[in-house]
C-alpha cells in the first residue's frame, strides 16, 4: 500500500514518536490528522506542515470519532497509528512496608495504555473498513505501540508491563479478526527511545541506557520508529506481527 493518496490518523501525534511519524507520513504524501491533548504542540505542527490537529482523548469514543471524521474528510482513511502516552503507575506488587499495590494505580495504567489503544483500534478499523478495497483487497493498516517491557518488565513496572503485554496479545487476534476486511494490524515494541519529553534529563538517560544496548550503543531515535511505521504501511505482507525496535536490548530486572 502506498502512503501517498491516503489520509492517516496519528494518535499521540505531538509526542516524540508521534511527531516523527506525522512528519514521515506527511512527507510521504498522506493527509495527516494529529490527535492528541497537547494543543500548543498540535497547533504548531498544523501551522508548520499544513496537517490537521484535533484535541483527542484516546479513551473517549466521541473524541476519537471526531478525529476519524476529520481524517475521512481529507481522503480515504487507510492508516491509523497509535503511540499516545499517559500516566503509568508503578511500584512493587507488595511494598517494603507490606502494603499491596493500590488497585486504582493498576486500573489507571491499564485504561491509559491498553483500553484506550483498543478504543482507537476498534473505531479506526470500522472507519478503514468503509473505504474501497485496493489491489488484493487491502483497505488499510493499523499500527499500535507496545514496549519491550511487555516481555521483560522491570521491578516496579507491573501495571505498565501488563498493559503493553495486552497490546502485544491483541495484535495477532485483531489481524485475524480484520483479515476479511482487508485491514492489517502490526505492533511496534520500542526499547529505550530518547524523545524531547525528557529534556535535560535525556543526557543522563543516554549515559545510562546507551552502553547497555548491544548495537548501536545508544538510545533509539524517534525517526527510526517513524521509518518502521512507513515500512509497515508499504509492505503488504507484514501483518499480525509485533516488531521489537530495541538494538537487541533486553531489560534487566531493574
TrEMBL record:
Origin: domain of life: Bacteria
Alphabetic keyword roster: Oxidoreductase
InterPro entries noted in UniProt: NAD(P)-bd_dom_sf, Sc_DH/Rdtase_CS, SDR_fam
SUPFAM superfamilies to which the protein is assigned, alphabetical: NAD(P)-binding Rossmann-fold domains
PANTHER family from the UniProt entry: 17-BETA-HYDROXYSTEROID DEHYDROGENASE 14-RELATED, SHORT-CHAIN DEHYDROGENASE/REDUCTASE
Assigned protein family: Belongs to the short-chain dehydrogenases/reductases (SDR) family.
Protein name according to UniProt: SDR family NAD(P)-dependent oxidoreductase
Source organism per UniProt: Rhodococcus gannanensis
Amino acid at each position: 500500500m502506498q502512503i501517498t493518496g491516503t489520509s492517516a490518523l496519528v494518535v499521540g501525534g505531538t509526542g516524540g514518536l508521534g511527531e516523527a511519524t506525522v512528519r514521515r507520513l506527511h512527507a510521504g504524501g498522506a493527509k495527516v490528522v494529529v490527535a492528541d491533548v497537547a494543543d500548543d504542540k498540535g497547533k504548531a505542527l498544523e501551522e508548520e506542515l499544513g496537517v490537521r490537529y484535533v484535541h483527542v482523548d484516546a479513551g473517549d469514543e466521541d473524541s476519537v470519532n471526531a478525529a476519524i471524521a476529520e481524517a475521512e474528510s481529507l481522503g480515504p482513511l487507510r492508516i491509523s497509528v497509535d503511540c499516545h502516552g499517559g500516566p503509568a503507575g508503578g511500584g512493587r506488587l507488595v511494598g517494603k512496608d507490606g502494603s499491596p499495590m493500590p488497585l486504582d494505580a493498576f486500573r489507571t495504567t491499564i485504561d491509559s495504555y491498553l483500553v484506550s489503544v483498543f478504543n482507537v483500534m476498534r473505531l479506526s478499523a470500522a472507519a478503514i473498513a468503509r473505504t474501497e478495497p485496493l489491489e488484493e483487497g487491502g483497505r488499510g493498516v493499523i499500527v499500535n505501540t507496545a514496549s519491550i517491557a511487555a516481555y521483560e518488565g522491570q521491578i516496579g513496572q507491573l501495571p505498565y508491563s501488563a498493559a503493553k503485554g495486552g497490546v502485544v496479545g491483541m495484535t495477532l487476534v485483531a489481524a485475524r479478526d480484520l483479515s476479511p476486511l482487508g485491514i492489517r494490524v502490526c505492533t511496534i515494541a520500542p526499547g529505550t527511545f530518547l524523545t524531547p519529553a525528557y529534556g535535560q534529563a535525556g543526557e543522563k538517560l543516554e549515559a545510562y541506557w546507551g552502553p547497555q544496548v548491544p548495537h548501536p550503543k545508544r538510545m533509539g531515535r524517534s525517526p527510526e520508529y517513524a521509518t518502521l511505521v512507513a515500512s509497515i504501511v508499504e509492505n503488504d505482507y507484514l501483518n499480525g506481527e509485533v516488531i521489537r525496535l530495541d538494538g537487541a536490548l533486553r531489560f534487566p530486572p531493574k
